Amino acid sequence: MVGYRLQPGAIINEWELMQLLGTDHPDEVEVVDLVREFVTVDYIVEHALEGLSQTNSLVNEVAKQLGLSTRSLQRRMLSATGRSPVYWAQLARIRRAARMLCQNPGFSTAANESGFADQAHFNREFRRWLGVTPGMFLANNDMTGVIQHSGYDGVSTGEHISTKKPLGSVT
User: Fold this and answer.
1) 26/91 Cα distance (integer angstroms)
2) Quick one: 9 exposed, middle or buried, by C-beta within 10 A (0-12, 13-18, 19+)?
3) How far apart are CA 132 and CA 98, in angstroms?
4) What pLDDT digit, counting tens, does each position of 122-160 carry?
5) Any bridge partners for residue 5, and if so which?
6) Which one of 32, 43, 69, 169 has the largest count of C-beta atoms within 10 Å of its C-beta?
7) Phi, psi angle pair for 143, to nearest 5°
8) What is the 3-state secondary structure (H, E, C) of the chain?
9) More confidently predicted of 97 and 157
10) What is the mean pLDDT of the chain?
11) pLDDT of residue 36
């Protein structure tokens, strides 16, 4: 089993890709090249995600920058990603906050600099998004390690196609 992680809003022509792959088992490099060939990204969605990942960005401001109404941006994002613009803005904020927390500025500083109303709000959102309190997060090396990997939060992620094989895989 091989999985491919694409950037948010990526649209893949699955049917044509699967037809091309057929029953062959191409190597990993060939598959990644084929996936790239059959993936397109909506320019508006890509730029909206970039704008929403910026600190303190508001959906209506991003929509205005893109020449869309707020409602049009909401519909476009929901259609392309399955999530609302507010979801993407909140995800970017909590990932930035978690990365900041790993640099040990203190809970209240991380909360304030990440745009949360107060530390209680920060704690609630942290638990809602990551399933643990900020203190539990810092105590878990696996979680702090994962948050350092690329992901949607306004940090340049470079390559958007990655491959992961299941544990114990020999291929």
Assistant:
1) 35
2) buried
3) 11
4) 999 989 998 999 989 888 888 887 787 666 555 443 333
5) 162
6) 32
7) -70, -45
8) CCEEECCCCEEECHHHHHHHHCCCCCCHHHHHHHHHHCEEECHHHHHHHHHHCCCCCCHHHHHHHCCCCHHHHHHHHHHHHCCCHHHHHHHHHHHHHHHHHHCCCCHHHHHHHCCCCCHHHHHHHHHHHHCCCHHHHHHCHHHHHHHCCCCCCCCCCCCCCEEECCCCCCC
9) 97
10) 78
11) 76
Burial class (CB in 10 A: 0-12, 13-18, 19+), 145: exposed
**Residue 40's beta-bridge partner residues?**
11
- Backbone phi, psi, residue 58, to 5°: -110, 145
d(CA 32, CA 38): 10
Residues near 136 by beta carbon (within 8 Å), at least 6 away in sequence: none
Compare 162 and 77 and report the one with higher pLDDT. 77
